[in-house]
Design a protein that fits this description.
CATH class of the largest domain: Alpha Beta
CATH architecture of the largest domain: Alpha-Beta Complex
Radius of gyration: 19 Å
Distance between the termini: 41 Å
Strand content: 15-25%
CATH superfamily of the largest domain: Spore Coat Polysaccharide Biosynthesis Protein SpsA, Chain A
Number of domains: 2
Number of helices: 11
Largest sheet: 10 strands, mixed
Helix content: 25-40%
CATH topology of the largest domain: Spore Coat Polysaccharide Biosynthesis Protein SpsA, Chain A
Length: 333
């Protein structure tokens, strides 16, 4: 099985200098690519000078995560793509259990490893943790991470199990599936494009898995921190995009109506916290979504929509009202 590790880079010379060595050290069986998203720093020159063994793909524009990978992967020949953030430190033998999972399960199209926090290595990291899920209103969360609450890694997620979505911070995907699904939706630009991608994959009959016997450490927040208003805007808007595209119309319409209320409550909460830019970001997210609704509706695929796609009824209610901050308690609630 040919694996290509593809790192998307945008003005990340410092990150490449720090994190690329671990990728090269522990990925001897894979081809290593850096897809540069029209950087204006010295990233490409740094690679050519210091790592001539790394294959460089230069995108002509910065199309964000989604378009950046779509453009770059057209030039990568492999059985499995590993989409890896530039701020990830990999570990010894990290590829071995992932490759085995793919070889033993042909129906599995997407896999993610355990994602731990580079700065607090005994805790899960925000982006992906131990595998992603959504609630019935389309809000994403993870095993090991619910909103801003991160669990300590005590081996509770050392399993291999099916999940709903895999993080784009470290996502393995069969090249055939990526091409069949036409890659990521470039209109997302960044954030939650992996949720939409995995949702579409599941609607096509593919499986998405988490393999806790492989682990990496993620710095996180290198492009946008978790508390950046632009990230709030993209997360809320793109979540509504995914609901529109991937659910039966009546269900999607009902959930969007509920989300109008729930997102409004979230905006009020930001006001009480004096985080007015985040409140405005939610308003902008909804306005952008309504403006682009016809376009998103046309993207609905004629596939069999999932009948049961959620793990929790309302992650918002469970977390903010019932005070549940642990995934294993959540699923028992």
């Amino acid at each position: 099985m040919r694996i290509a590790v593809v790192i998307l880079n945008w003005n990340g010379e410092i990150l490449l200098e720090r994190f690329l060595p671990s990728v090269l050290k522990y990925s001897s069986t894979a081809d290593i690519y850096v897809a540069d998203n029209a950087s204006t720093d010295e990233s490409v020159l740094f690679l050519k000078k210091n790592y001539p063994q790394v294959k460089i793909i230069q995108n002509i524009a910065n199309g964000g995560f989604a378009k950046g990978y779509n453009d770059a992967l057209e030039y990568v020949d492999a059985d499995v793509f590993c989409l890896l953030n530039s701020d990830v430190e990999v570990t010894e033998n990290w590829l071995v259990p992932i490759e085995a999972l793919f070889q033993e399960n042909p129906e599995v199209a997407i896999v993610q490893p355990k994602i731990l926090d580079l700065l607090k290595k005994d805790h899960f990291e925000y982006a992906g943790a131990a595998g992603g899920f959504i609630d019935q209103f389309g809000y994403p969360f993870c095993r090991g991470r619910i909103f801003q609450s991160l669990e300590r890694d005590n081996g509770q997620y050392n399993d291999i199990t099916e999940i709903f979505w895999a993080t784009g911070a470290c996502m393995f995907v069969r090249s055939t599936a990526f091409k069949e699904l036409n890659g990521f939706d470039a209109d997302y630009f960044a954030h939650q494009e992996e949720v939409d991608f995995c949702w579409r994959a599941k609607n096509h009959g593919y499986k998405v898995y988490y393999n806790g016997t492989s682990k990496v450490y993620h710095l996180g927040g290198s492009t946008l921190s978790n508390m950046n208003p632009k990230k709030t805007y993209l997360n809320f808007r793109n979540s509504l995009f995914s609901i529109t595209k991937n659910l039966p119309f009546k269900k999607a319409f009902a959930i969007i109506f509920v989300r109008l209320v729930l997102d409004g409550i979230a905006a009020l909460r930001f006001i009480f916290q004096f985080r007015f830019k985040h409140c405005f970001a939610i308003l902008r997210a909804h306005l952008s979504f309504y403006r682009q609704f016809p376009k998103m509706y046309k993207k609905r695929e004629k596939t069999k929509f999932l009948l049961k796609y959620y793990t929790a009824k309302s992650i918002v209610w469970s977390y903010f009202v019932n005070g549940i901050k642990n995934f294993n308690i959540l699923v028992k609630d």
